[in-house]
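User: Predict the complex with adenosine-5'-triphosphate.
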Amino acid sequence: MSQTTKRSANEARSLAQAISQVILWGFNKHYRLFRETSALAKDRFERADWHGVQQAASDRIRFYDLRVSETVERIENEFSSSLGDEDVWQRVKFEYVDLLLDHMQPECAESFFNSVVCKLVKREYYHNDFIFVRPTISTEYLDAEPPSYKSYYPLDFRAEGESPATGLRHVFRELITDLDFAVPFANLDYDLDCIERALAEVLPDNFRPLPNHQVQVLRSPFFRNKACYLIGKVINGFREQPFALAIRHERRDSLTVDALLLERDHILTLFSFARSYFFVEMEVPAAYVRFLRQIMPNKPKAELYSMVGLQKFGKTLFYRDFLDHLRHSTDQFQIAPGIRGLVMLVFCLPSFPYVFKVIKDKIASTKDTSRALVREKFQLVKQHDRLGRMADTLEYSDVAFPRERFAQELLDELQELAPSMLQVNDDTVVLRHCYIERYMRPLNMHMQQADDTELSRALIEYGNAIKELAAANIFPGDMLYKNFGVSRQGRIVFYDYDEIEYMTTMNFRRIPTPRNEEDEMSGEVWYTVGKYDVFPEEFKPFLLGNPKVRDVLLAHHGDLFTAEFWQGLKDRIGKGHIESVFPYPAALRFINRFPPAGDEAWAVLRAAENDAAASATATAPIALVSAPLTARSSIVGLSSV
Ligand SMILES: Nc1ncnc2c1ncn2[C@@H]1O[C@H](COP(=O)(O)OP(=O)(O)OP(=O)(O)O)[C@@H](O)[C@H]1O
Ligand SMILES: [Mg+2]
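Assistant: Here is the predicted structure with adenosine-5'-triphosphate placed in the model:
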């Protein structure tokens, strides 16, 4: 790096201070906007503004990059003569650390700093001294005032002689009331009955409250789609029972508590990589993540940060974890098992449950796409509700891997198919651009090894996945089995995004009846076909070749092969309908688990609830089918990822 002007130490220091202040200005603005949109989530929920929810989720994804660009631009304009001054850059980081001493989001601010500095200082020049390779400010005991979670003591609420579960009932009433929703609950007493009964099922028979018996709840609820979740745990002695309380606003004028999730697997499902990020109003995200980790100790911090909406910091943490994993493993990167892609070159590290995807330079001519278009599709998925059916991806530029960990076959293939993305140095292989996503067993491989029950289950789930995607305005395009993966919980998730379109863009047609004998005999397509025309009857030869597969799919999802089904869904979306997504098994919903008894008032409530539920999932046009249970699915429930 050439030093354009020789500055005194004092000058360099004051320039470094000024630059670090601009970077922090950029971060603080980012976090302020992030908090504002999170705080508005409650209002959107109360107004049942589901289109607003989708828009806000999509907008929020762009916030970070916008703020980074804005900050870079300011520094380029205001400090143009110092950009090449190594003395100044050496100091910027130290000055920045000074500014962060009392900051409430120092870990995120450090990662923002890295994003800005890496854009300003060319890769060849910056060294790790300039950026935060590891966090410098501890977030260990950092918390807000009032603290991020609130404790309620059931013994304070319990009247003489009442059962322990009744004390908990009072606490749950209190913590729901504390949310201070502007919309009333349809029948809070029924909801509390259900909560009390659900809790009683998990409390040991000889439950005796100890002096530390308390319920801790994160102060901000977690909002996503049409639901709001309260996340907490019930503590007694050394025992901790985590929970997520799902509150829904299906009807315009009232709220209901829909379920109380008490199994860790069900709570993990809420936070799955195939779901969208929550809106959570947090002053100290580190404190929220700390609490969540107590509930889900095996979930990487990186994923938890992403799930509370701080996906860029999640990405930084993921990369640190990845480097750490490399230090603790010796296996080699290799081409991912399964059928190779025409668009993407996919490789994996067997000891690490993720895949790395690079867009090829030469894309097969049968695919009418380009690198820019493929990137747009990935961005579309990032900003869209992923519904538990599309894997999240982390996008990286200029990622360096240790060269000795690359199998030669993979290096050759990268060299041949994506040379412009590859830079091979003495010790490193640098990929100019790649996506990283969770490894899942490709469905085509799963089907080859599955027994009949597993095959049926997978195919039924496959059909459900397509229907849920379609109902949420995603036409997957290439629906071959190789483009879906099976998650650890047996759920089918889509991962091939290059042919995705909005349903509303497509035109679903029946194959026209031949006009005459000549048409009938013609080997050519005799009718005109538009760019976005799709003929669902044509899916059959691709999907139904195997007789067993054919029987199951036609029996359960025969409608997928009709234009009417797809067009019906498209019309429904066109009318503004937004489906309800329930990221937990239907059997856990209170209306199914503890059906209300039948006096007249209840009957009305029940009818209303059933209406809402029916319009949400169970009736045409998306009739989802329950898959037969396997040992695994019976543990975690059918709708979990
Ligand atoms: N998340 C994943 N987990 C495991 N394997 C994966 C994953 N994503 C992709 N693969 C493997 O890599 C192959 C190619 O990936 P993908 O389908 O994304 O690429 P593509 O080039 O878009 O494919 P196509 O040629 O079908 O368009 C898949 O067939 C599968 O075997
Ligand atoms: Mg594919």
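The mean pLDDT is 89.
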